[in-house]
Design a protein that fits this description.
Layout (H helix, E strand, L loop, with lengths): L1 H5 L6 H18 L1 H14 L3 H21 L5 H23 L5 H23 L3
């Protein structure tokens, strides 16, 4: 999902981030019950070499995206922005999906989250 969405050169960067936000929140809500079972098994797979490879690939995708959306920012600013967005996805997605949600609630929440990311990145880029 991350690669297909953030690296889609046919869309502007912030539109790709918005699409990713919607897809991520929807998937978190759809997979909430499975996540509980996976959390129980987490020690068995979290430290596996394959899991580290997937995390590294995801980090590289986010780094490329941040270079694209924040070309004039310092490496430290881009790293912070990427870490903040990645952490927000994980924490907010988990917390929001713990309660069953309607499609309307999911869309509204994803829009608000995407708006927050967009405002942050626009501020960092000096566009606002």
């Amino acid at each position: 999902m991350l690669r297909d969405t953030l690296e889609d050169a046919g869309k502007p960067p912030l539109a790709r981030l918005r699409a990713l936000t919607h897809a991520f929140i929807r998937s978190e809500c759809a997979e909430a019950s499975v996540r509980v079972a996976l959390d129980d098994a987490a020690p068995l797979y979290r430290d596996a070499p394959e899991a580290a490879e997937v995390r590294q690939a995801g980090n590289e995708i986010i780094e490329r995206f941040m270079r694209e959306v924040l070309p004039d920012a310092t490496n430290n600013e881009r790293t912070l922005a990427g870490d903040l967005i990645r952490t927000t996805f994980g924490a907010v997605g988990k917390a929001f999906s713990e309660t069953p949600r309607s499609d309307v609630e999911i869309a509204a929440y994803a829009d608000a989250m995407a708006d927050m990311f967009e405002a942050y990145l626009l501020r960092l880029s000096g566009s606002i």
